[in-house]
Specification:
Oligomer: single chain
Strand content: 25-35%
Number of strands: 15
Radius of gyration: 18 Å
Number of helices: 10
Order of helices and strands: HEHHEEHHEHEHEEEHEEEHEEEHE
Shape: globular
Largest sheet: 7 strands, parallel
């Protein structure tokens, strides 16, 4: 493991490693990252506070079901190359004049700059982070579905947000998911689930972007079944049985990128 890795990079890589393995001991992580066990304990304590792992008796376990969601800033550090490749794969379906809904998933963020270069596009979102990035692109007409502001997630939720979304119609909805297991999408927060479900209802074409670390996990609330999407783009190496569940969907195009 590169010794030049910053702490933020190490935290993101630890979270990914635990997610892929299911569980790793402090000793294993210390050896892997070439740092002291005390350093790993501090890192894991921060990841536990962020809602990414459980830490108990010297072992970090991936959080497979949670009532919380990790912060917007932390999620943005995870698997950045995979997120970029997923968004790049969307280029063929982007058109001038489209109205596009984006949720607050960190996975969709690389898409914003691409949309800015694709000509006049109307962008609808409930994410303050997405909105701030969209401000840098004058070609984008921005509609922000405000409501009750969640500071940690930097997004808006609640009845006002849902009301705004239901008053709009999009050509394309692009989102990711906190977890997917056997073709069912999950989210840890009820209010986040409601926003995603409404965006799906209000869009003509629905695209799911998902990387391998999301597979095989569940959370408290069901968002939708994978068959609700017209296209599913998958990055990384998901479990074979999870991919099989997607590839059996009769009307959904599934593609690995």
């Amino acid at each position: 493991m590169a010794t030049a890795m910053t702490r933020a990079q190490r935290l993101a890589t630890i979270a990914d490693s635990v997610m892929e393995a299911g569980a790793l001991t402090v000793h294993e992580l210390a050896d892997r990252f070439r740092v002291s066990r005390m350093t790993i304990y501090r890192d894991l304590a921060e990841l536990e506070a962020a809602g990414s792992v459980w830490l108990e008796q010297g072992k970090a376990t991936a959080r497979r079901s949670s009532f919380t969601e990790t912060s917007s800033d932390f999620r943005a550090t995870l698997r950045q190359a995979l997120k970029q490749s997923l968004c790049e794969a969307l280029r063929p379906i982007l058109r001038r004049g489209q109205t596009i809904m984006l949720d607050d998933s960190s996975t969709v963020r690389p898409l914003i700059a691409m949309l800015g270069g694709a000509g006049p596009i109307t962008l609808i979102t409930h994410s303050q982070t997405v909105a701030l990035e969209a401000r840098q692109h004058p070609e984008l007409r921005l509609i922000l579905a405000g409501g009750a502001y969640n500071r940690a997630l930097d997004s808006y939720y609640g009845l006002t947000t849902l009301s705004v979304l239901r008053s709009l119609r999009a050509d394309l909805c692009v989102m990711s998911t906190a977890a997917i297991q056997r073709g069912v999408l999950y989210h840890p927060l009820e209010e986040g689930t409601a926003v995603k479900a409404t965006m799906l209802e209000q869009s003509e074409r629905r695209v799911l972007l998902v990387d391998h670390a999301k597979f095989g996990h569940h959370a408290t609330h069901v968002v939708a079944r994978a068959g609700a999407f017209d296209d599913i783009l998958v990055a990384g190496r998901p479990p074979r049985e999870e991919m099989a569940a997607l590839e059996e969907l009769p009307a959904t195009r599934v593609r690995r990128v």
